[in-house]
Amino acid sequence: MKKKLKVGYSLEQSEEAKSKRGFETNLGSLAVTGQKCPVPGSGMIFHFLGYTVLVLLLACFTAVAAENACGPPARREREQPMEELTAETYEHGHIISYKCRPGYAKAWPIKLQCNDGVWQRLPPTKNCTGKSCGSPGDSDFASFELTQGEDFTFGARVVYKCHEGYKMLSQHNYRDCRANGWTNEVPHCEINKCPPIAPAGNVRIIQGAKSQMNEDFSSGDLVIFGCIGKLKIKGANKITCTADGTWSAPVPECIEITCQADYIENGNVLSPKITYKEGERIRFSCNEGYSHVDRQDALCTETGWGTKLQCEEIKCFPPEVTNGYLQYRRDHYMYNDEIETICNEGFVFGSPGKVSKCTATGWHPPPVCKRKGCDYIRIENGRMAEQHRQFPIWEGQSIQFYCYDGYLSKDKQTWQTARCINSRYDPEPKCFKICDPAQRFHYGRIIYHYWSYYIEGDNVTFHCDMGYSPANQQSSITCTKKGWSPAPRCIPPVEHTCTKVSLSHGNFGSQQQSFQINAKAKYICHDGYTTSKGETEAETQCLKEGWSPEPECIKTCLKPPEGDFIFNTTKSVFFPGDKLHYECKEGFEITKNTIDDTVACTEKGWEPTPSCEAIVCNTPFLENGTIEPREDIFHHKMVVHFKCDEEFTRVGSESAQCYHFGWSPQPPICKENVKPCRAIPIISNAIVTDEPKPVFQHGDRLEVQCEISFALYGSKIIECVDGDWAPLPSCKEEIKTCGRPSTIKNGYFLNVKSSIYRHGDTVEYRCTQQHSIIETNLAKCLHGQWEVPSCLGKLINLQK
What stretches pass through the bilayer (predicted)? Predict the structure, then answer.
């Protein structure tokens, strides 16, 4: 085992050890003694043999001790040694004590020990922590933010920022946490101010004047100007002191009020003058084919002409004809243009003829379709009995019709009476083909009653002779316009081959004419035809009973392509008689002349063609005001904004949106004088939270709250609109109640003494330590359910 020596110690060898032969040394016989240094100036005497070995061993053990020593410890950021560290090495086991640097504190001693050449921390392993400076202090009109550090301890920095409209007066906008506390004073902010204003002598300040002419204005101050005498403002009549201490606009001037009207395009001024003064009125006319944009006269006001001096070309937009449609529809029509109205079946034009003309007052005569009775109709395979009767007949009247030989009515009568109900005949005058149940065919017969007739749509069965069976194992047939379908056919029990059948509207893929039992053949249907499964290509197999399935190519319709409409179906193939419902896409509606929203698959394809037209609204008219944007036609969901002229006040909504039924809400009106509201409205079981005033002006708003146990229906905000409060909500009793409030995560409720709470009752909540409430701390019972707050976030525990 190797023994380690501390620095300053050496080994001594006994006499017995010295007598050993050679250079071997018994380490067990060596004694460790304090190493002595030679006298300065004297020489070291080296001996040979045994003594020479002793010197070499001493040198080796001294080197081992030096390897276990530690160099100077690294500098610590928050602590400093209590002794001066000047040595280049420190022996194993050496301990250095530390103290905290300025600005830091400790609760336990901090020591490092040299251990086998490495400095190790002696327990407890707690470092010095930064001293707390407490809160940096609040500043009026400013907020601060922690930009360095995680809390208000040594080394932290907070930066102050003035609120909008304020400026920093202090030299420094920050404070640092040092060993002796916060640096600098708490910064100070002062409101920005605008310089005094000096208006001209004919300009007066209506609102916002200062008591002293040279007094500054604060940020946000509003000054309203007016003119003295018959003058008008040139410039902005309102200026505001902005947050950066400048005025939003220059001080205005007052000039004489005059109006000019030199030229009106497509119009003429009546009794013209070069200049018009305030209060004078101008009258003008428009050329033929043009009309006044606003009205035929205008008043000279402070802001110019009160209404527009403009003539616009007369336009008429396509009318919405209920129960009818226009023959040739355009986006708009010009003056004297004519339109022809086609009324739907069961309706007639409201005036003689079918033509309406575009005039200055609109369409004349109005395109209106009125309901009529039932008209004369042509009956396929039959006819009406009253050829000389006056048509249309009135609602409730009846007609007689009869069917030709080989056809019967739906009730299987040759003669039938139909009544006009809701512009339609009931039953529908229609004749159906009679199928002969006694039809002969090989090896079988149809089973029927001798006294019965069979018409289109009726089903019967047939029976095959002994030894024969129905083709394709199908013994049921249906009467159609072309006779029995499928044609009744009986086949012999054993048939060794199948002959290629004649396939209408299709072709077999093989030229082979005869097929063995179990052989398969493919066939392809012509365009517009498929199998009953909707396949354009199919395969049939030759069985003893014949072809299975029987080859067929019947008329079908593919799903029609979509346009301004969509079909609600997943099918892709349809058969004659199938109907499809379609819906117009958003922004479109079914064309007025369309009877319903279905199309049917016929022999000619889909009929009728689906038709959707864009939803449009005509330009709304606002007297004494303007609209934005100004378009000839507004499409679905387009929004228009209303603005009243100067000295006029809007009564109604600020905007409206185009829907399929027109504008909603209805356009407002512009009134020169609006009425105030004299008193707060009385709403049962409700209170108005705002303070009462003797008079409320047009546009003032109040908030309504219902009493406990009552729920609010409608808007909680009501507005004074031309002397009336609108919209008025109602407070209805809510019978649903809440039980005890629920507990929340990281929070709890206070003073809960009841087990039943009514609608509107509240309960206070608080959060546990290290958490804070989000928004309100009140839970509210609403319609039998509690709305409770939340506790989130971990707070920083600041040392004051």
Answer: 45-66
